[in-house]
């Protein structure tokens, strides 16, 4: 099955995000196709985002390979993340997480009123 490629205008990864994804993929013992980015209803902005390893590619999946890391997005999720940059940030207090930058508001408002998150409250 030949999948459509995501472009840099669809989705970008920072160097820290690429490195962390490659590190995590290297720790998995099973056969993994890549990292799936997905959107689910909910959160302050109307949509929450997440990532998981996947061993399957669906017919409506789009793929972007960056430095050996395959990022997989289905066509339904693409409308919410087009233009997003995925970064990996570590704070001084030991908190480390992936963040989604440049998210577009899904409806009307900007970020969350209580937490300021652009990707939904966690």
Proportion of residues in β-strands: 35-45%
> Between the first and last Cα atoms, what is the distance in angstroms?
36 Å
How many H/I helices? Answer: 2
| Residue runs with pLDDT of under 50 for 5 or more positions | 108-122
| Outline type | globular
What number of domains?
1
Q: What topology, given as strand order, has the largest sheet?
A: 1-5-6-3-4
Per the CATH scheme, the topology name is: Hypothetical Protein Aq_1857, Chain: A
* Fraction of residues in H or I helices: 10-25%
Structural class: alpha/beta
Number of beta-strand segments = 8
Give the topology string: H per helix, E per strand.
EEHEEEEHEE
Mean pLDDT: 82
Radius of gyration: 14 Å
Q: What is the CATH architecture descriptor?
A: Sandwich
CATH class: Mainly Beta
Q: CATH-wise, what's the superfamily?
A: HesB-like domain
Q: Main sheet?
A: 5 strands, mixed
What is the topological layout?
Elements: E1 4-5, E2 11-13, H1 15-27, E3 34-41, E4 47-54, E5 61-66, E6 69-74, H2 75-81, E7 84-90, E8 96-101
Any overview of this molecule?
With 122 residues, the chain is an alpha/beta fold. The chain has one domain: Sandwich (Hypothetical Protein Aq_1857, Chain: A). Helices cover 16% and strands 38% of the residues. Strands 1-5-6-3-4 form a five-stranded mixed β-sheet. The chain has a three-stranded mixed β-sheet with strand order 2-7-8. It is globular, with a radius of gyration of 14 Å. The termini are far apart.
